[in-house]
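For this section, I looked closely at the sequence of one protein beside the tokens encoding its backbone, which the following lines show:
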Amino acid sequence: MHRSSRWAAIAVGLLLLTACSTGQDGTAVPEVIATTSTAVAAPTPWDPCTIPDDFIEQAGLNTATKESGVFGRDQNGFKICGWESQPPSSKYFFSLFVGIASIDYIDDPSYFDRLQSVRVGARDATQYQQLSADSSRNCGVAFAAGAQLVRATLVTAGRVDDPPYEPCIELNSVVTLLESQLPA
């Protein structure tokens, strides 16, 4: 097709796409058709780093060790915040992960196992272990809060040979102490 034929075809196409309405005297009048598109932002999970320091201290955690994200970044759509236990022991690291997900998220056997129904404070929850985690040193618990999934983990520090606590009992105690600050 020659260059002028291409432009003619494009012009005809544009004319066909132009809408017209009939004016008062019966002549065609161009009509402007406006469309608006509003993009709906994806919901943002609640940020656990907004828990006030006094609640963090009451739960036995060290506010000076607060870490947002993993290396400062959220992961897989989850807002993350973590703290070490109070000095001088600093025996474990406690983390909260909050994302827009259902409790089915932890049903993935390639990441989580040893799922067990538990009660944490006033909430029904699922206790779990990350795949290959040592249950004598680590524990996780998850529960739904509306459209959000709240996961809490306790990971014993590597320099602690024999933890003086049972990880899941300690984790559930910390989550219970923070419960009033977590999403409903």
Q: What stands out?
A: The radius of gyration is 28 Å.
